[in-house]
Request: fold
Amino acid sequence: MNSALKILDIAERRMRQAGYNTVSYRDIAAEMGLKSASLHYHFPKKEDLGVALVRRYAEKFRDQLTASTCDTDLPHELIKAFVNIYANALKKQKLLCLCLVLAAEADGLPSPVTEEVKKFFSENISWLAERFETLNFERPADDANTMFALLQGAMVISATSDGYDAFDAAVRSIQEKMATPQ
Amino acid sequence: MNSALKILDIAERRMRQAGYNTVSYRDIAAEMGLKSASLHYHFPKKEDLGVALVRRYAEKFRDQLTASTCDTDLPHELIKAFVNIYANALKKQKLLCLCLVLAAEADGLPSPVTEEVKKFFSENISWLAERFETLNFERPADDANTMFALLQGAMVISATSDGYDAFDAAVRSIQEKMATPQ
DNA sequence: GCAAATCTATCTAGTGGTAGATAGATAACT
DNA sequence: AGTTATCTATCTACCACTAGATAGATTTGC
Reply:
C-alpha cells in the first residue's frame, strides 16, 4: 500500500542527488528490501515513475506556496518565504529542486517527464508573477523569472560547493534589489 | 591525431544535452565511425574523459572572458558581454553550460569530475567579483554570485521551454538592477 | 642508409556487470 | 474467490573496460 509512496520517496531523494539516469529500480528495491521486479507492479515503466515523481513534487510545492508564510503583503516577507522553501531543502535535506536536476538532463529524459518539468516551471513562475503584480512591482513577470532563475542557479552552484556561501550571497543580493521595487 | 579532439567535441555536446551518465563510449564511437574500444586509447576511463572535458571547457571560457567584448569599464557593457557568452550558447547551439549540467548530477559523478566543476564555478564567480570591484559596485562579491547564479538558473529553466522568453525576462530584469550599482 | 625497435591508433573479441522489463508462480489480505 | 503485492527466473540490450593483434609511422642504433 505505502510501497508506492516509499518508492517515490526513495526515488525522489536519489534523483535529486544524482539525476534520473543514475537511479535504478534495483537500487530502490534494495533499499526497500524488495526485488526490482516488484517495483514494476507499482510503476510499470521508469517513465511512469518519473512522471509520478514530478507530479507529486509539484503538488507538494503548491502546498508550500499556499502555506501561511507565503500569505503576506510585504514584498520582503514573500520573497523570504519563497527563498526559504529552497533554502530549507538545500541546507536541511541537502537536496536540489527535483525539476532543476531533471531539466539539466532534459534531452535524455522520456518526453512525458520533460513535459511535467516544464509545467512545474511555468506554474511556479506564474504564481510568483501574480503575487508580484498584486504587490505592485514594476515588472512583475520579469522579476518572477529573475527570482526563480536565481534560486535554481544558486542551488546548482552550491551542489559542488562546500558550504552555502554562494547560495546565501546570491540570495542576499537579490533580496535587497527586489524587496524595494519602486 | 585529432581523434581526441573529436571525442571531446562529441562528448561535450552530448553531455550538455543529456548529462554525464547518458553519454556512452559506444555512442560517441558510432558517431565517429570508430569502435568504442578505440576511445579507451585516448581516454582510458570515462572519468578521464569527464575531467578533460571540464578542463577544456573552463579554458575556452577563460578565453572568452579575456576577449575584447569583456574589456570595458561600463558596467552595462560588461554584464551584457558576460550574459552573451551563455545567451549565444543557448540560442545558437541550444546547449546549456557543461558545468551546470554536471553539477546537477554531482553526487552521481566521479569525484575528480565534480572537483573540476567546482573549480570552474569559483573561478568564474571570482573573476566577475573582481571586475565588479574595479567598477566600484557596492557589493561586488554578492553581485557576482547573483549574476552567475541567475544565468545558470535562466539556462536550466529554458532547457524545457519552447522559446527563450524565460531566459530573456530573467536577464532583462537583472541587467537593469545591476547596471546601476549606486 | 638500413634494420631494429618503438610508438600511434585502430581493430576484433570478449569479460563481467547492470539496465529496464516481462512472464508466471506464489503468497497474503478482504 | 478474487484482488493485491511480491516473488523467482529470465530476457535482451547496453554499459565500461580489457586483452591481444595489426598495420603504419617514427625513432633509434649500427
